[in-house]
Amino acid sequence: MNHLSSETFKENAKAALADVQLRGALKNATSLFGERRKAAAASLPNWEDLRTHARAVKDEVLLHLDRYLEEFVRNAESRGATVHWARDAAEANSIICGLATERAARIVVKSKSMTTEETHLNDALEAAGMQVVETDLGEYIIQLAHEPPSHIIAPAIHKTRQQIGELFTAELGMPPTDNVDQMTSTARMKLRDRFAAADVGISGVNFAIAETGTIVIVENEGNIRLTTSLPRLHIAMMGIEKVIPRFADLDVFLKLLPRSGTGQRLTTYQSFITGTKRASTDEGPDELHIVLLDNGRSRMLAHPVTRQSLACIRCGACLNACPVYQQVGGHAYGSVYPGPIGAVITPQLMGIEKAAQLPYASSLCGACREVCPVKIDIPQLLLHLRGEISPRKGSRAERLAFKMWARVMTSPSLYRLSSVAGRILQRVMPISRAWTNGRDLRPIESKSFHDLWANE
Amino acid sequence: MKVSLFVTCLVDQMWTSIGVSSVAVLRRVGCEVEFDKRQTCCAQPAFNTGYLDEARLVARRFIDIFEESKADAIVSPSGSCTAMVHHYPQLFAGDSKWLPRAQAIAAKTHELSAFLVRVLKIEDVGASWNGRLTWHDACHGLRDLNIKSEPRALIRNVRGAEFVELEHADSCCGFGGTFSVKYPEISVAILDQKIEAIERAGVQAVVSGDASCLMQIGGRLSRKGSKVRVMHLAELLNESSQQ
User: A14, A335, B31, B220: most buried by Cβ count inside 10 Å?
Assistant: First the structure.
């Protein structure tokens, strides 16, 4: 598997920048998504109000998450669902593998779920002897390519049509083509067969409604509808932050999510699942199990600054808008959550020491904050994380440099002295190669503005 | 109106004509300009790199100095440094002594184009410059201070100047302070998108409100041997063309 590490972000990024095909694919896809999002947002006159409203709902939930989760569990269980609490990825995977093996399951179909990517559930299921088939087209492609997703909603965004054609020829024996319709129908035929044979369907959750115990999942391909209705056992995994209080709250989120993600007014399918089937003659799975995953989320919840990270609805808009993501793509981040929101939540989920480079992988331009449908102040979060990392993990030279800098900048005489020294030093010292490899450096002026003002 | 100029350390050391032009433009529109020689930096490099203790030291110093001023406003030819001053309350959150002082200083500090248009209600400073030019929205001015129409209004009133909108004028140039040297390859890759857009615009000059972005863009244009020049808004507004 082509799993890059967050610890080598700088090297990963350099390799990505050298990949011409990748950059072409990224440029096309991110700008298309970006333009569609802009048009879709502009089509609603009250877009800003919707964002404010959605954030207020999320803030309310996060302030009383315990209460809303208990309410959700009570209502879901009263309708026949079984709810499991998982402290971390290992616990979540072991619950799910246990459920599947107890029922002697062999074939698992999965619909797209970032939370199961986060726990690396597929590896666990395969280790338990099961065949796992991703049924979202993008996820299916990257599963065939043995790659992790590179975008939150468009997992194969990094691949060109031609690359996917070659992959399908190699893996599925399809005659060589770059015709999208042909590739899609080939995948559809392969997947239909697996749906019919599957023992377990595993999905994610977009929203979990406390008031009714309903889980809501949105999609365009119909594979989620099949995953959650054909097999006898449906398991849904969700982060604990996915709960919203009332059914009526969905209104605002179903307006914001598709518009922010793909620029659609509505996704093709919205599945509302409340418990299991009522009568044995009804269609649908016999059992519904919902796994509530913490995996670091309560830690994020505990801190007043980082709490807002949990408001994220995983639309992917910040990735498309981010100039860094647009250049290096998702794999370079070495995390299932790439881009600006990934740079914020990865260090919090995986531990700061494992992803210490990511919060610095931003020019702090603020484009992410501008497009975020729930108004997460991502630059503020990046700065907060930098504040946690730099004083402890910054290089000794950097820490010393900023100490000296502060001395100089708080003393007019030292400032004047260093301004003179700088002018002399730039003649004898090699200028930082990091800058000059790609750009000419403007020389320091012979007289500072201070000097000019004094001579006026 | 009496104005205290915060020239920024970058302009002070690297691009003094921006400071000189700012003073000239402010005087032309009737302001009395003072310059406190004790001023240094707004603290942004440390703040953005995560050295918050050091940033607080420098921010306190800024507040100490500029609080003494009798001027009606503090004006700076930088969206980024002005935005940093507007971040001071965030830096001193929960500090009952410094928070109100930070808030007061932030409320008084304006970026140059916003000061001219919003405070003084002036959109024409009587400048003239012959040629075709475009505008790059520097991120912090645009997104932290909501400066978008102000510089465009000022530019449109420059006699002889033909203004064209830059494609993706609001996308980042890739500078990002220490980001530009921590990740120089990504920084330059982002920058190249900006350079391509500037080349397609067919202009003689690209104008912006921050010396930092202009050093980034200018550094690449110069490396590529481009004839397009970079110009700060203050410099443009101080032009009286005899070309």
Answer: A335
